[in-house]
């Protein structure tokens, strides 16, 4: 009787039948990703130089172009600056590989915050750009439209689980939001070195150079890493052995 019971009793699953659990990968050495700290330093310096002149400054004393007949200009500019600051801080978290792998939930939430702030900053930027200096207006407008479009496209791709497209579009968005750093660097460096040429060419260069070069660099990086497997949310959940 005992022998018959043993025959019908289900056997314990073999190790091969058990669901496999991935072990946490070893930490990537800092020298493999040395760009995160410089990115944060450059972003912090840029935000300080751009935001500080407006902190506690009344409209009459703020460094803004003439905007007669548009009383909402300054309040909208302040909202644009706040939203732009949020996008630059959020995008630094978005491109941080360790955060993306170890805390995908935080990555998703900062991504949502980034997209919302991007929409606000981009729409207000397009409203305000007619009051900016004429040199560079076309470059700023194109960069803003592309930034808005790629950010929305990246969000839509994530919603549809198209992770390769999501990565591509959000890297384009990162390149475009960081183009402002180039503009500030070019103008300030030229003026500090005693630039005596036509200011029109300087402003045009500053407004085009940053986002065009950034997009080229991102495209080079995408081509260079094209053979790498694309991480999916499931791939980012690891179980310690």
Automatic annotation (TrEMBL):
- Do you know which InterPro entries this protein is assigned to? DUF2306_membrane
Q: What is this protein called?
A: Uncharacterized protein
Region annotated Disordered sits at 1-25
**Any transmembrane segments, and where?**
35-52, 72-93, 113-132, 138-157, 169-187, 199-222
Print the organism lineage.
Bacteria, Bacillati, Actinomycetota, Actinomycetes, Pseudonocardiales
Q: What's the source species for this entry?
A: Actinophytocola xinjiangensis
Source domain of life = Bacteria
What's in the keyword line of the UniProt record? Answer: Membrane, Transmembrane, Transmembrane helix
């Amino acid at each position: 009787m005992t022998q018959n019971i043993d025959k019908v009793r289900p056997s314990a699953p073999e190790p091969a039948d058990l669901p496999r659990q991935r072990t946490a990968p070893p930490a990537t050495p800092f020298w493999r990703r040395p760009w995160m700290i410089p990115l944060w330093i450059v972003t912090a310096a840029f935000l300080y130089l751009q935001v500080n002149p407006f902190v506690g400054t009344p409209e009459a004393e703020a460094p803004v172009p003439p905007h007669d007949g548009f009383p909402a200009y300054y309040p909208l500019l302040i909202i644009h600056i706040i939203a732009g600051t949020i996008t630059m801080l959020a995008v630094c978290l978005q491109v941080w590989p360790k955060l993306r792998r170890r805390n995908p939930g935080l990555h998703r939430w900062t991504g949502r915050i980034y997209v919302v702030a991007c929409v606000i900053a981009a729409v207000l930027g397009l409203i305000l750009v007619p009051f900016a200096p004429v040199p560079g207006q076309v470059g700023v407008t194109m960069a803003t439209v592309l930034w808005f479009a790629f950010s929305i496209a990246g969000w839509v791709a994530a919603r549809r689980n198209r992770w390769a497209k999501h990565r591509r579009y959000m890297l384009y968005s990162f390149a475009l939001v960081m183009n402002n750093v180039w503009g500030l660097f070019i103008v300030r460096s030229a003026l500090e070195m005693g630039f005596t040429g036509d200011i029109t060419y300087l402003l045009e260069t500053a407004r085009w150079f940053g986002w065009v070069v950034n997009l080229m660099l991102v495209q080079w990086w995408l081509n260079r890493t094209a053979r790498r497997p694309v991480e999916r949310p499931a791939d980012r959940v690891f179980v310690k052995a």
